[in-house]
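Could someone model 2-acetamido-2-deoxy-beta-D-glucopyranose with this protein?
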Amino acid sequence: MASSKLVLAMAALAVAFLPAFTAATEHWVGDNTGWTLGFNYSAWAETKQFKVGDTLVFKYNEPSHTVVEVSGADFAACNIPGSSKVLTTGNDQVTLDKAGRRWFICGVGAHCKNGMKVKITVLTAEEAAAAAAPAPSPPPSPAVKVQAGLVQAVLAVTAVIAAALVF
Ligand SMILES: *[C@@H]1O[C@H](CO)[C@@H](O)[C@H](O)[C@H]1NC(C)=O
Ligand SMILES: [Cu+2]
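Reply:
Sure, complex below.
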């Protein structure tokens, strides 16, 4: 039966590529507290993992606050360049479409200097998957690494053979 073979091949391929997959996450900045004064966003960000494809959501009562993405230097100085795009809806969504550092501050009054600022590091999907895997302790010996590599290779070859049998 060709169709059951196809399903098997698909399953084998899915297993071979499973480690690379993790679902996108929507992060409410400040969780239920939202985007406001008197909250430590550095501490908040330390407890989260951000990866490409995730979304940041800044929730606040407009017009009390705003959200402005700035450079690292402007983040440190709480400076907002004139050309900046200012988000003002009170429910601002920012897609994390690339890996690396990103900096956001509130543009109202001295809010940024008073701590209304958040810095995050966006991981690639591969980095996020690797970070999610339990840390080996003690670190695997080279022999174990070779074995793990062999298992992956066998899985991949199995998937290819299964696919070849069908197509
Ligand atoms: C915020 O939390 C960070 C990390 O936990 C800490 O180092 C920092 O001192 C805190 N900042 C304030 C203003 O409490
Ligand atoms: Cu503010």
